[in-house]
Specification:
The structure is a single chain. By secondary structure, the protein is α/β, with parallel strands linked by helices. It has two domains: about 5-220, Spore Coat Polysaccharide Biosynthesis Protein SpsA, Chain A (Alpha-Beta Complex); about 230-330, no CATH class. The chain is built from eleven helices and eleven strands. Strand 2, helix 2 (about 50-60) and strand 3 form a beta-alpha-beta unit. The protein is globular. The chain starts with 6 loop residues before the first strand and ends in a 30-residue tail after the last helix.
Amino acid sequence: MASRDRLTVFVLFHNLGGSNPLARECLASLAHSVDDRIRFELIDDGSTDDTPQLLAEAARRLPGASVHTHASARGASAARNGALTRVETTWFTFLDGDDWVRRGYYPALLDEAERTGVPWLRVDHIATTGKERLVTRIPSGARGRVIAPREEILPGHRTTPVDFAHSWGGLYHRCLADEQIWWFPPQLRTAEDRPGIWNLHLSVDAYAISEVCGLHYRRGIPTSLTMVRDERQLDIIESMRLMGEVVARHDDTERFAPKVVRTWAGLLAFHYLNRHRLSPALRRRFMVDADALLATAPQELLAEVLTVMPESRRQSVQSLRRQAAALRATGMRPTPTPPSVAWGSTTGLENVDQVRIDG
Protein backbone atom coordinates (compact mmCIF):
# COMPACT_ATOMS: atom_id res chain seq x y z
CA MET A 1 0.00 0.00 0.00
CA ALA A 2 1.35 3.44 -0.92
CA SER A 3 2.27 5.72 1.95
CA ARG A 4 -0.19 8.50 2.80
CA ASP A 5 2.62 10.63 4.25
CA ARG A 6 2.37 14.19 2.93
CA LEU A 7 4.45 16.29 5.33
CA THR A 8 7.79 15.87 7.11
CA VAL A 9 8.59 18.05 10.10
CA PHE A 10 12.35 18.16 10.74
CA VAL A 11 12.93 19.04 14.41
CA LEU A 12 16.49 19.97 15.40
CA PHE A 13 17.87 19.35 18.91
CA HIS A 14 21.27 20.00 20.44
CA ASN A 15 22.01 19.53 24.15
CA LEU A 16 18.44 20.02 25.31
CA GLY A 17 18.39 17.17 27.79
CA GLY A 18 18.93 16.99 31.54
CA SER A 19 16.67 19.20 33.62
CA ASN A 20 16.00 21.53 30.68
CA PRO A 21 12.24 21.32 30.03
CA LEU A 22 12.24 22.91 26.57
CA ALA A 23 12.71 19.78 24.46
CA ARG A 24 10.10 17.91 26.47
CA GLU A 25 7.62 20.73 25.93
CA CYS A 26 8.38 20.71 22.21
CA LEU A 27 7.89 16.94 21.96
CA ALA A 28 4.68 17.09 23.99
CA SER A 29 3.29 19.68 21.59
CA LEU A 30 4.05 17.42 18.61
CA ALA A 31 1.89 14.73 20.16
CA HIS A 32 -1.06 17.06 19.54
CA SER A 33 -0.23 17.27 15.81
CA VAL A 34 -0.17 13.52 15.19
CA ASP A 35 -1.78 12.72 11.85
CA ASP A 36 -1.31 9.69 9.62
CA ARG A 37 -0.15 12.06 6.84
CA ILE A 38 2.68 13.56 8.90
CA ARG A 39 6.20 12.37 9.75
CA PHE A 40 8.36 13.83 12.51
CA GLU A 41 12.12 13.44 12.07
CA LEU A 42 13.83 14.23 15.37
CA ILE A 43 17.41 15.27 14.59
CA ASP A 44 20.04 15.08 17.32
CA ASP A 45 22.92 17.29 16.24
CA GLY A 46 25.78 15.70 18.14
CA SER A 47 24.45 16.30 21.65
CA THR A 48 26.81 15.47 24.52
CA ASP A 49 24.09 15.15 27.18
CA ASP A 50 21.15 12.76 27.37
CA THR A 51 19.25 14.33 24.45
CA PRO A 52 19.72 11.16 22.29
CA GLN A 53 18.00 9.05 24.94
CA LEU A 54 15.22 11.61 25.30
CA LEU A 55 14.57 11.55 21.55
CA ALA A 56 14.72 7.76 21.32
CA GLU A 57 12.08 7.47 24.03
CA ALA A 58 9.92 10.12 22.36
CA ALA A 59 10.11 8.34 19.00
CA ARG A 60 8.80 5.14 20.60
CA ARG A 61 5.74 6.98 21.89
CA LEU A 62 5.10 9.51 19.10
CA PRO A 63 3.35 8.05 16.04
CA GLY A 64 5.13 8.90 12.80
CA ALA A 65 8.40 9.82 14.55
CA SER A 66 11.94 8.69 13.80
CA VAL A 67 15.37 9.78 15.03
CA HIS A 68 18.30 10.90 12.89
CA THR A 69 21.58 11.24 14.79
CA HIS A 70 24.79 13.11 13.99
CA ALA A 71 27.86 11.68 15.69
CA SER A 72 29.20 15.22 16.17
CA ALA A 73 27.61 18.64 16.03
CA ARG A 74 27.31 20.04 12.51
CA GLY A 75 25.39 23.22 13.26
CA ALA A 76 21.92 24.28 12.17
CA SER A 77 22.84 25.03 8.54
CA ALA A 78 24.50 21.69 7.82
CA ALA A 79 21.83 19.80 9.77
CA ARG A 80 19.03 21.41 7.76
CA ASN A 81 20.88 20.91 4.47
CA GLY A 82 21.16 17.24 5.33
CA ALA A 83 17.44 17.15 6.05
CA LEU A 84 16.74 18.65 2.62
CA THR A 85 18.41 15.62 1.01
CA ARG A 86 16.06 13.28 2.91
CA VAL A 87 12.74 14.89 1.93
CA GLU A 88 10.43 12.17 0.61
CA THR A 89 7.02 13.72 1.28
CA THR A 90 5.25 16.35 -0.81
CA TRP A 91 5.71 19.00 1.88
CA PHE A 92 8.33 19.69 4.54
CA THR A 93 9.14 22.21 7.25
CA PHE A 94 11.48 22.79 10.17
CA LEU A 95 11.13 23.32 13.91
CA ASP A 96 13.71 24.13 16.57
CA GLY A 97 13.69 21.79 19.53
CA ASP A 98 13.27 24.63 22.04
CA ASP A 99 10.08 25.97 20.40
CA TRP A 100 6.62 24.45 20.40
CA VAL A 101 3.33 24.45 18.49
CA ARG A 102 -0.32 24.63 19.45
CA ARG A 103 -2.72 21.71 19.23
CA GLY A 104 -3.48 20.62 15.68
CA TYR A 105 -1.00 23.07 14.16
CA TYR A 106 0.64 20.88 11.50
CA PRO A 107 -2.53 19.11 10.28
CA ALA A 108 -4.17 22.53 9.84
CA LEU A 109 -1.16 23.88 7.92
CA LEU A 110 -1.06 20.81 5.70
CA ASP A 111 -4.76 21.13 4.91
CA GLU A 112 -4.27 24.76 3.91
CA ALA A 113 -1.18 24.03 1.80
CA GLU A 114 -3.02 21.30 -0.09
CA ARG A 115 -6.02 23.57 -0.59
CA THR A 116 -4.01 26.60 -1.70
CA GLY A 117 -1.68 24.69 -3.99
CA VAL A 118 1.25 27.11 -3.78
CA PRO A 119 4.83 25.84 -3.37
CA TRP A 120 5.42 28.05 -0.33
CA LEU A 121 2.96 28.74 2.47
CA ARG A 122 4.25 31.32 4.96
CA VAL A 123 3.06 31.51 8.55
CA ASP A 124 2.83 34.10 11.32
CA HIS A 125 4.18 33.13 14.74
CA ILE A 126 3.89 33.87 18.43
CA ALA A 127 7.01 35.43 19.96
CA THR A 128 7.33 34.05 23.49
CA THR A 129 9.48 35.64 26.18
CA GLY A 130 8.84 34.03 29.56
CA LYS A 131 5.08 34.31 30.04
CA GLU A 132 4.69 37.11 27.51
CA ARG A 133 3.05 36.23 24.19
CA LEU A 134 3.14 38.50 21.14
CA VAL A 135 1.55 37.51 17.84
CA THR A 136 3.98 38.51 15.10
CA ARG A 137 2.39 39.00 11.69
CA ILE A 138 4.24 38.87 8.37
CA PRO A 139 3.68 42.37 6.94
CA SER A 140 1.99 41.28 3.74
CA GLY A 141 -0.53 43.19 1.68
CA ALA A 142 -1.64 39.97 0.00
CA ARG A 143 -3.39 38.08 2.78
CA GLY A 144 -6.16 35.93 1.44
CA ARG A 145 -4.72 35.69 -2.06
CA VAL A 146 -1.80 34.16 -3.98
CA ILE A 147 1.01 36.45 -5.13
CA ALA A 148 4.57 36.23 -6.45
CA PRO A 149 6.82 36.71 -3.38
CA ARG A 150 9.21 39.03 -5.25
CA GLU A 151 6.34 41.52 -5.45
CA GLU A 152 6.43 41.83 -1.66
CA ILE A 153 10.15 42.56 -1.25
CA LEU A 154 9.57 46.29 -1.68
CA PRO A 155 8.96 49.02 -0.69
CA GLY A 156 12.21 49.73 1.06
CA HIS A 157 10.82 52.23 3.52
CA ARG A 158 9.27 49.55 5.72
CA THR A 159 9.81 46.01 6.95
CA THR A 160 8.51 43.52 4.38
CA PRO A 161 8.08 39.72 4.27
CA VAL A 162 11.66 39.16 3.08
CA ASP A 163 12.88 40.54 6.43
CA PHE A 164 11.12 37.68 8.26
CA ALA A 165 13.85 35.07 7.84
CA HIS A 166 12.84 31.96 9.79
CA SER A 167 13.19 28.47 8.36
CA TRP A 168 10.32 27.25 10.54
CA GLY A 169 8.06 30.03 9.25
CA GLY A 170 6.37 28.11 6.48
CA LEU A 171 5.52 24.91 4.64
CA TYR A 172 7.63 24.15 1.58
CA HIS A 173 6.89 21.95 -1.42
CA ARG A 174 9.41 19.22 -2.09
CA CYS A 175 10.36 20.84 -5.42
CA LEU A 176 12.08 23.63 -3.47
CA ALA A 177 14.47 21.05 -2.01
CA ASP A 178 14.83 19.00 -5.21
CA GLU A 179 15.69 22.10 -7.25
CA GLN A 180 17.97 23.47 -4.48
CA ILE A 181 15.99 26.68 -4.21
CA TRP A 182 15.85 26.41 -0.40
CA TRP A 183 19.28 25.95 1.17
CA PHE A 184 21.43 27.14 4.06
CA PRO A 185 25.04 28.41 3.71
CA PRO A 186 27.00 25.84 5.74
CA GLN A 187 29.58 28.38 6.94
CA LEU A 188 26.93 30.40 8.81
CA ARG A 189 26.32 29.64 12.48
CA THR A 190 23.83 32.48 12.95
CA ALA A 191 21.61 34.41 10.51
CA GLU A 192 21.73 31.32 8.30
CA ASP A 193 18.15 31.76 7.05
CA ARG A 194 18.52 35.20 5.42
CA PRO A 195 20.24 34.34 2.09
CA GLY A 196 17.87 31.44 1.47
CA ILE A 197 14.77 33.49 2.28
CA TRP A 198 15.87 36.05 -0.31
CA ASN A 199 16.43 33.25 -2.82
CA LEU A 200 12.93 31.93 -2.16
CA HIS A 201 11.40 35.37 -2.69
CA LEU A 202 13.24 35.77 -5.98
CA SER A 203 12.80 32.20 -7.28
CA VAL A 204 9.35 30.97 -6.22
CA ASP A 205 6.50 31.82 -8.58
CA ALA A 206 3.73 32.04 -5.99
CA TYR A 207 3.13 31.98 -2.26
CA ALA A 208 0.41 32.72 0.26
CA ILE A 209 0.22 33.77 3.91
CA SER A 210 -1.43 31.11 6.05
CA GLU A 211 -4.50 31.76 8.15
CA VAL A 212 -3.02 29.39 10.77
CA CYS A 213 -0.95 30.85 13.61
CA GLY A 214 0.32 28.55 16.31
CA LEU A 215 4.11 28.28 16.43
CA HIS A 216 5.63 29.62 19.65
CA TYR A 217 9.09 31.03 19.01
CA ARG A 218 11.03 31.40 22.24
CA ARG A 219 13.09 34.54 22.66
CA GLY A 220 15.66 35.47 25.26
CA ILE A 221 16.94 31.95 25.94
CA PRO A 222 20.56 32.34 27.20
CA THR A 223 21.79 29.33 25.17
CA SER A 224 20.12 30.47 21.93
CA LEU A 225 22.45 31.35 19.05
CA THR A 226 20.72 34.73 18.83
CA MET A 227 21.95 35.44 22.37
CA VAL A 228 25.53 34.16 22.22
CA ARG A 229 28.28 36.70 22.76
CA ASP A 230 31.13 35.04 20.90
CA GLU A 231 32.42 35.24 17.32
CA ARG A 232 29.35 33.43 15.96
CA GLN A 233 27.48 36.74 16.21
CA LEU A 234 29.77 38.12 13.51
CA ASP A 235 28.34 35.65 10.99
CA ILE A 236 25.61 38.25 10.40
CA ILE A 237 28.16 40.09 8.20
CA GLU A 238 28.79 37.09 5.97
CA SER A 239 25.06 36.40 5.90
CA MET A 240 24.42 39.90 4.55
CA ARG A 241 27.17 39.56 1.96
CA LEU A 242 25.65 36.28 0.73
CA MET A 243 22.25 37.97 0.66
CA GLY A 244 23.71 40.54 -1.73
CA GLU A 245 25.18 37.77 -3.88
CA VAL A 246 21.78 36.11 -4.14
CA VAL A 247 20.21 39.33 -5.41
CA ALA A 248 23.09 39.94 -7.84
CA ARG A 249 22.51 36.52 -9.44
CA HIS A 250 18.84 37.19 -10.16
CA ASP A 251 17.02 39.45 -12.55
CA ASP A 252 16.06 42.92 -11.32
CA THR A 253 19.26 43.43 -9.34
CA GLU A 254 18.94 47.17 -9.77
CA ARG A 255 15.37 47.09 -8.49
CA PHE A 256 16.24 45.30 -5.25
CA ALA A 257 19.77 46.60 -4.52
CA PRO A 258 18.42 49.57 -2.52
CA LYS A 259 16.48 47.19 -0.25
CA VAL A 260 19.61 45.10 0.31
CA VAL A 261 21.72 48.12 1.25
CA ARG A 262 18.98 49.42 3.55
CA THR A 263 18.90 46.02 5.24
CA TRP A 264 22.68 46.02 5.63
CA ALA A 265 22.68 49.47 7.19
CA GLY A 266 19.74 48.75 9.48
CA LEU A 267 21.08 45.45 10.78
CA LEU A 268 24.62 46.73 11.25
CA ALA A 269 23.27 49.73 13.15
CA PHE A 270 21.30 47.37 15.39
CA HIS A 271 24.38 45.25 16.11
CA TYR A 272 26.51 48.33 16.66
CA LEU A 273 24.04 49.57 19.27
CA ASN A 274 24.38 46.17 20.98
CA ARG A 275 28.16 45.92 20.66
CA HIS A 276 28.51 45.83 24.45
CA ARG A 277 27.57 42.14 24.21
CA LEU A 278 30.92 41.43 22.52
CA SER A 279 34.42 41.35 23.95
CA PRO A 280 36.66 44.32 23.07
CA ALA A 281 38.53 42.23 20.48
CA LEU A 282 35.31 41.09 18.83
CA ARG A 283 33.92 44.64 18.85
CA ARG A 284 36.96 45.83 16.93
CA ARG A 285 36.67 42.97 14.47
CA PHE A 286 32.96 43.61 14.02
CA MET A 287 33.49 47.27 13.16
CA VAL A 288 36.28 46.61 10.65
CA ASP A 289 34.44 43.71 8.96
CA ALA A 290 31.12 45.57 8.91
CA ASP A 291 32.73 48.64 7.38
CA ALA A 292 34.40 46.44 4.73
CA LEU A 293 30.98 45.09 3.79
CA LEU A 294 29.49 48.59 3.55
CA ALA A 295 32.43 49.59 1.35
CA THR A 296 31.26 47.05 -1.27
CA ALA A 297 27.90 48.82 -1.60
CA PRO A 298 27.43 51.59 -4.17
CA GLN A 299 28.49 54.56 -2.06
CA GLU A 300 26.01 56.98 -3.59
CA LEU A 301 23.21 54.57 -2.75
CA LEU A 302 24.53 54.06 0.78
CA ALA A 303 24.66 57.83 1.28
CA GLU A 304 21.03 58.13 0.14
CA VAL A 305 20.00 55.38 2.54
CA LEU A 306 21.78 57.00 5.48
CA THR A 307 20.13 60.38 4.90
CA VAL A 308 16.66 58.89 5.44
CA MET A 309 17.46 56.52 8.29
CA PRO A 310 16.24 57.34 11.81
CA GLU A 311 18.86 59.53 13.45
CA SER A 312 20.02 56.96 16.01
CA ARG A 313 20.59 54.35 13.30
CA ARG A 314 22.30 56.82 10.97
CA GLN A 315 24.64 57.99 13.73
CA SER A 316 25.41 54.36 14.62
CA VAL A 317 26.50 53.55 11.07
CA GLN A 318 28.55 56.73 10.84
CA SER A 319 30.23 56.04 14.20
CA LEU A 320 30.93 52.46 13.13
CA ARG A 321 32.64 53.66 9.95
CA ARG A 322 34.71 56.30 11.76
CA GLN A 323 35.91 53.79 14.35
CA ALA A 324 36.67 51.25 11.64
CA ALA A 325 38.80 53.85 9.82
CA ALA A 326 40.73 54.49 13.02
CA LEU A 327 41.30 50.76 13.50
CA ARG A 328 42.51 50.36 9.93
CA ALA A 329 44.98 53.18 10.56
CA THR A 330 46.56 50.96 13.22
CA GLY A 331 47.00 48.18 10.67
CA MET A 332 43.87 46.13 11.38
CA ARG A 333 42.32 44.50 8.31
CA PRO A 334 38.98 42.77 7.68
CA THR A 335 38.91 38.98 7.96
CA PRO A 336 38.54 38.16 5.15
CA THR A 337 38.12 41.05 2.75
CA PRO A 338 34.61 40.70 1.25
CA PRO A 339 34.45 40.50 -2.56
CA SER A 340 32.38 43.14 -4.28
CA VAL A 341 28.81 42.36 -5.30
CA ALA A 342 27.95 43.08 -8.95
CA TRP A 343 25.17 45.55 -8.26
CA GLY A 344 24.86 47.12 -11.71
CA SER A 345 23.35 50.58 -11.99
CA THR A 346 21.41 51.81 -8.97
CA THR A 347 20.04 55.02 -10.35
CA GLY A 348 16.40 55.98 -10.11
CA LEU A 349 15.94 55.19 -6.41
CA GLU A 350 12.36 55.03 -5.26
CA ASN A 351 10.42 54.76 -2.03
CA VAL A 352 13.36 55.93 0.08
CA ASP A 353 11.66 57.30 3.18
CA GLN A 354 12.91 55.45 6.19
CA VAL A 355 14.77 52.29 7.14
CA ARG A 356 13.17 50.14 9.82
CA ILE A 357 14.65 46.67 10.17
CA ASP A 358 13.65 44.54 13.12
CA GLY A 359 16.74 43.23 14.86
